[in-house]
Design brief:
The protein has 188 residues and is mainly alpha-helical. It is 73% helix and 0% strand. It starts with 7 loop residues before the first helix and ends in a 10-residue tail after the last helix. Its main location: membrane.
């Protein structure tokens, strides 16, 4: 038995890891917005949400590493490791692959700054962490532009579902921001 560096096996694995990465990134952005709202419940305390957010972020890294590795290993296209991290250099679908590299770089910057949060300070970390709101749509555009699944109905609906989910989350965040926090009210 030999391992083929082209053919459908790596292609399916690349697609699957890309889809899981996008779904996990969507979930992580959702959790980040919920955590930032500073609302919690007895059933789901804030520390649980923070732990889920961190674990989701680690899962994204694992699936993203697999996505990049299978893409580079697959000999069907000539995508190099440099193409995965240096935006807009690839000869293959330059813009769409470049957007993937930008999203990958932004995600790596988020992880590195989170690991260095104690050293760089909370204020700097929080400012840099705002790039997560750029990482997610760039990753989605990469998936829609270079992926093969948006060409089929379920792939488009998966992307639309991610957009609707994050859109509803952001709308919820804005709506609760307009209401006073019950913890801020004074009880006589």
């Amino acid at each position: 038995m030999s391992l083929s560096l082209n053919g459908p096996g790596l292609w399916y694995l690349t697609r699957a890891t890309g889809i899981v990465s996008l779904l996990m990134l969507t979930f992580s952005v959702f959790l980040g917005v919920v955590i930032r709202s500073r609302r919690s419940s007895r059933r789901l305390p804030r520390f649980v949400l923070v732990g889920l957010h961190r674990n989701a972020s680690l899962m994204i890294l694992i699936f993203l590493a697999l996505h990049v590795a299978t893409t580079v290993i697959d000999s069907y296209t000539s995508i190099t490791l440099l193409d995965a991290f240096a935006p807009f250099l690839s000869q293959y679908r330059t813009v769409w692959l470049g957007l993937g590299a930008v999203a990958c770089d932004l995600l790596l910057a988020l992880v590195v700054t989170s690991l260095l949060r104690e050293r760089i300070g909370l204020r700097t970390w929080r400012l840099l962490h705002w790039t997560s709101y750029l990482c997610w749509p760039v990753a989605l555009l990469h998936a829609w532009g270079t992926g093969s699944d948006p060409g089929v109905a379920w792939g488009r609906y998966l992307g639309y579902g991610c957009v609707a989910f994050i859109g509803a989350t952001l709308l919820w965040r804005v709506m609760i921001g307009l209401r006073p926090d019950p913890a801020d009210t004074l009880v006589p």
